[in-house]
Amino acid sequence: MAKPEKSRKNAPAKAAASLKLEAVGPATPDVLDRLFDVVESRRGTDPSVSHSARLLARGRRKIAQKFGEEAVECLIEAVAGNRGELVSESADVLYHLIVMWVDAGVKPAEVWAELLRREGTSGVAEKASRPRDPLA
């Protein structure tokens, strides 16, 4: 028998966000490019009205901390077999990764190009092609 999903205090907010996205357009991969544009547009704006602006104002360490927290939450839900929560936490991970990209000046097209470069290459071969870390 499947485990019931746990309820979360922010579930209504996440449901509302989901409805808002559906109203904007279909869920396609370019949603990440649109999210990047929104986060980038929040740089330097009032942190009291934008979570993205607040994270960007707090700096890379805080952004990295939030990304790490969300990644751990994502892994916990995956291991627990909570599919719905895994989807939700995955969205949080992607959002915080995009905030990190904005802070670091990394454009999504750069990441997409790297993925394209790796496409069709065995993961084993790709990893073997990387320079060896002398400290490893």
Automatic annotation (TrEMBL):
Keywords: Amino-acid biosynthesis, ATP-binding, Cytoplasm, Histidine biosynthesis, Hydrolase, Nucleotide-binding. Its main location: cytoplasm. Pathway: Amino-acid biosynthesis; L-histidine biosynthesis; L-histidine from 5-phospho-alpha-D-ribose 1-diphosphate: step 2/9. It catalyses: 1-(5-phospho-beta-D-ribosyl)-ATP + H2O = 1-(5-phospho-beta-D-ribosyl)-5'-AMP + diphosphate + H(+). Coiled coil: none annotated. Gene3D superfamilies: MazG-like (1.10.287.1080). It is found in: Cytoplasm. GO terms for cellular component: cytoplasm. GO terms for biological process: L-histidine biosynthetic process. Pfam families: PRA-PH. HAMAP family: HisE (MF_01020). This is Phosphoribosyl-ATP pyrophosphatase. It comes from Komagataeibacter intermedius AF2.
